[in-house]
Amino acid sequence: MGWIKWDSTLELGHSAMDADHRQLVAQVNQLADCIVNNRGKEVYNALIDDLFAHTSAHFGMEEQLMAAHSYPYAEEHRSEHARLIKDAIAHRAKFDASNQPSISLLFFFDQWLSRHILNSDRELAKFLARSK
User: Fold this and answer.
1) Is the pLDDT at 26 greater than 60, yes or no?
2) What is the torsion angle, in degrees rounded to the nearest 10, for the CA atoms of residue 15, residue 108, residue 36 and residue 24?
């Protein structure tokens, strides 16, 4: 299932960031398939765990890039990462309490991935390209 369509608007021109973003999109699409096709709690939990782990690693990579290149908006970007993680954990807690996968989680991931890539990450990628 293609919940999020990867296209050139999501490309930033930074190979590591683009590769991670493609992986995150693929993982959200796997999660969508799991929910729509009712693949079960164990599959859902495994996909969520993988998505959270990859997101955490991706944010760590971005934060290392920001530190290494003295990105002037690093604190704001890190704060956005922290807020996204907090919101994702809240969505996970709702699932754990209800035991029912929710389509709202897909909307959440779709919105923050798109918004974060198109805004914050695009600015970071532009900065990194200029600082070469």
Assistant:
1) yes
2) 10
Residues 6+ apart with CB under 8 A from 129: 13, 14
Say what the pTM is.
0.88
User: How many Å apart are CA 97 and CA 58, to the nearest integer?
Assistant: 27
Distance CA(79)–CA(74), nearest Å, equals 8
Q: Which residue in the block uniquely carries the two structure tokens 């989680």?
A: 105
Residue 120: half-sphere exposure toward Cβ, Cα within 13 Å: 20
The CATH code of the domain at 13-130 is: 1.20.120.50
- The burial of 103, by beta-carbon neighbours within 10 Å (0-12 exposed, 13-18 middle, 19 or more buried), is given as exposed
Domain boundaries, the chain: 13-130
Residue pair 80/120 in contact (Cβ under 8 Å)? The answer is yes
Task: Give the separation between CA 31 and CA 26, rounded to whole angstroms.
Answer: 9
